[in-house]
Design goal:
It is a single chain. The protein is mainly α. It has one domain. Helices cover 32% and strands 0% of the residues. It has five helices and no strands. The protein is globular, with a radius of gyration of 14 Å. The N and C termini lie far apart (41 Å). The mean pLDDT is 89.
Length: 117
C-alpha cells in the first residue's frame, strides 16, 4: 500500500490537531509510519485508549467547521470552537467503527450526550 492509499483508508498524515497541535491519537502511527511498516513487512499497531480523540462526524459538520475531507485532525475542543457550539450525538456519523472506540471523557460525553466533567 502506498502512503496515499493509507491516507484514503483513514490514517492521516498527522494525528496532531491542526489548530492547537495536541496529538489526538497518541497510540497510533501516521500514514508515513504505517506505509513504512507495511513495505518492510511489519505491522503498525494502532492503540485507541482514554487519551484519544479519534472520531468521525457527519460531512456537513466537518464542512461547517471549515474542513475539507482528509484536511487534517481537530481535537474536540477546537472543532467545537470552530462550530461555536458543543457537539451532540447526532453530529457523529452512525455505524462507524471509529465512533465505537475508547476516547477522552470529553469525546465520550459528546458522543453519548452527557455532561463532561
Amino acid at each position: 500500500m502506498t502512503e496515499d492509499e493509507i491516507r484514503q483508508a483513514g490514517i492521516p498524515e498527522s494525528w496532531d490537531c491542526i489548530d492547537c497541535g495536541v496529538n489526538t491519537a497518541p497510540g497510533c502511527t501516521n500514514a508515513a509510519q504505517t506505509a513504512q511498516a507495511f513495505t518492510s513487512g511489519r505491522t503498525a499497531p494502532q492503540t485507541y485508549d482514554e487519551r484519544c480523540e479519534v472520531y468521525i462526524v457527519k460531512r456537513a459538520v466537518w464542512k461547517a467547521a471549515g474542513m475539507n475531507p482528509y484536511g487534517g485532525c481537530l481535537c474536540i475542543g477546537c472543532l467545537e470552537k470552530r462550530l461555536d457550539r458543543k457537539l451532540r450525538p447526532r453530529d457523529f456519523k452512525q455505524n462507524n467503527a471509529l465512533n465505537e472506540m475508547p476516547g477522552t471523557d470529553r469525546l465520550l460525553s459528546r458522543r453519548m450526550g452527557m455532561p463532561h466533567g
